[in-house]
Every structure is written in C-alpha cells, then in structure tokens.
C-alpha cells in the first residue's frame, strides 16, 4: 500500500512516516521544503512537493497513492492562512482523494471537539470531519489530546532554563499521549476494516493536571519550577483584544485553545473500542513518567559532556598560556 503523509515534517507526521516505513509501507511525503524534509528521505520516504496554501499543488501529489494520512496543521508563522490551510486545502485534498479512488483516509482532530464548536480552529476541524463523513471514503478520524512532546517546551525546558512556567488558574485534567503511540495505532488501523468510517478517541492512560506535571519534572530534574498562574478571565480579555488586530489572530487562536483546555477536558471516554479492535494492552502505551525520565536523563548527560568539554578546553588554554 502506498501512503501519502501530509504534514510529515511535524511532531506527529514524522512518527507516522517512521512507523509506516518500519512496517514496510511505501511512503510518500508531501513537503513544501525539500531541505526541511531531507531527514525523511534519509529514512527511506519519497518527497513530493506540495504546499497546502497553493491548492493547485495538492491533486498532483495523489498519483499512485492508495491511502492518505493527514497530520498537517497551520504553523504559527502562517497566521493569515489558517482558513486556507485548515479548510480550503483539506476540502481539496478530500475531493482529490474521492477522484483518485483512495482506499483509506486518516484525519486527526481534537479530543472532545464537538463540545468546543465556538473555538474557530476547532470549528474548522469539525467542518472537515463532517466533509469526510459524507464523502463515501473509508475514513478514520482520531480525536487526540495533547502530546507528550509538547510538554517539553511547555514545562521541561523552562524548568531547566530557570524561566517561568505559565499555567492557567483552572487547571484541567488531560490524558496526554506520546506521538509514537499514536503513530503505532494509526498505522495498525490501516489493515483493520473496523476502523473504516469510524471516529475514535486516542488518549493516554493517565489524566494529568499542570501542577502534577510540574511536580514530576521537579522530582526528576532536581530543579525548582518558577510558576506563573494566569487567570482564565485575563486569557479571555487578551483573546478579545488580540482579535481586533489581524496580525495577532494567531495569538488569539492560541489563547482560545488554552481556554478550551482550561474549560476542562472530560477524558472519561476510554479507548476501550480501539484497544478491543487492535487487541492491545493499554499498558503498552508509554507512561509520561518514563518519557520525562528519559528526556531529563539524556539532557543531563549532554550537559555533563558539555561541561567536561569546556573544562578540558579551559585546561588546554591554561597549559598554552603557561
Ligand atoms: N500538538 C498537539 O498537542 C495536538 C493535539 C490534538 C490534535 N493535534 C492534531 O494532530 C495533528 C498533528 O499535529 P502536530 O502537533 O504534529 O503538528 P505540527 O508539528 O505543527 O506539524 C504541522 C505539519 O503541517 C505542515 N504544514 C503546515 N502548513 C503547511 C502547508 N501550507 N503546506 C504543507 N504542509 C504544511 C507542517 O509542515 P512544515 O514543517 O513545512 O511547516 C508540518 O509538517 C494536527 O492535525 C493537529 O491538529 C495536535
């Protein structure tokens, strides 16, 4: 089966590509920069030029493809293109998939999206979900919570760097998941008919509050976090202010997303159906404790090596001077 991965350079996309290659799929990656996608080529994928903001480039990428996995989403620096990337280009991708008789189509949306229709980014996701549901394609929509990988810049790095960690006053419970686990299950789902025309949640096995994650990072790293709490009413105020200026639309979108998280995710919906269909044990999903432990250990090791290198360089310089 030849796969087209859209958004292959992203956090989730690259894991999808790696897993698919490991499983023996022929993988084509739609990229807008061959330089940026060079690592995917090194892994064994084929690069095809395509830019979601240049919609004419989309249909050409589908030649010889039998399944599409769309992991793309607009980047922070593409703020004026959000509607073009999240809606128009994805409509065209779906239309092209129908014409090309694509056998499987995977799309990633946000966990609990139905409850947040008033948030612009989620509203666009829901429109794509609806378009897929009436397309006649064999689609699977996975509803995802936050990723482990996003917690590094949000919590781990500021703690290591002695910067402020920002949290909202109404800290909600989120069942974060590793993108490697998402990739594993998404690729596995391609060969199982029960995923056809199905919408399912893909969540981690434990609920986390911001403060729990901060405590965990502190315990593992041995460093104290400097926490700044921002009240939700202030977030809303900022959101309304930033909406006045088009150039800050992206900030307002991001704040809306934080607001959505602060309203509380109800992650009580379990992955029972997926676990049952894939016949896996939920314990196979990576735990956040293990992920963060490995992250901090590798960072501390690198810092130690760097310190040793600096000390030995200083020693050499001193020897030269004397
Ligand atoms: N991150 C989360 O916590 C989270 C939570 C729930 C759901 N999701 C969903 O999961 C999916 C993957 O998210 P992610 O965090 O992995 O995304 P990401 O890291 O931000 O990656 C976005 C991908 O989209 C590509 N892209 C953006 N604009 C493009 C354009 N004009 N033309 C071609 N490609 C373009 C990017 O390519 P470039 O490298 O060229 O920019 C990149 O490969 C998305 O559907 C997202 O909504 C994410």
Architecture overview:
The chain has helices at residues 11-22, 38-43, 57-60, 82-99, 120-133, 148-160, 179-189, 210-221, 232-242, 249-262, 272-278, 288-321, and strands at 2-6, 26-31, 46-49, 67-70, 104-110, 139-144, 164-168, 198-201, 226-230. It has 322 residues and is of the alpha/beta class. Helix 2 links the parallel strand 2 (26-31) and strand 3. The radius of gyration is 22 Å and the shape is globular. Residues 245-250 have low confidence and may be disordered. The site of NADP nicotinamide-adenine-dinucleotide phosphate (NAP) has 26 residues, from helix 1 and strand 5. Residues 7-13, 32-33, 36, 51-53, 71-75, 78, 85, 108, 110, 144, 146-147, 150 line the site of NADP nicotinamide-adenine-dinucleotide phosphate.
Output the keywords:
322 residues; binds NADP nicotinamide-adenine-dinucleotide phosphate; alpha/beta; two-stranded parallel ribbon; 7-stranded parallel sheet
How would you characterize the largest beta sheet?
Answer: 7 strands, parallel
**Tally of strands:** 9
Order of SSEs, N→C? EHEHEHEHEHEHEHEHEHHHH
Mean pLDDT value: 87
Number of helices: 12
Low-confidence stretches: 245-250
| Distance linking N and C termini | 67 Å
The largest sheet has its strands arranged as 3-2-1-4-5-6-8
CATH architecture: 3-Layer(aba) Sandwich
Strand content: 5-15%
Write the layout of secondary structure elements.
Elements: E1 2-6, H1 11-22, E2 26-31, H2 38-43, E3 46-49, H3 57-60, E4 67-70, H4 82-99, E5 104-110, H5 120-133, E6 139-144, H6 148-160, E7 164-168, H7 179-189, E8 198-201, H8 210-221, E9 226-230, H9 232-242, H10 249-262, H11 272-278, H12 288-321
Helix pairs in contact: 1-7, 4-5, 6-8, 8-12, 9-10
Bound molecules: NADP nicotinamide-adenine-dinucleotide phosphate.
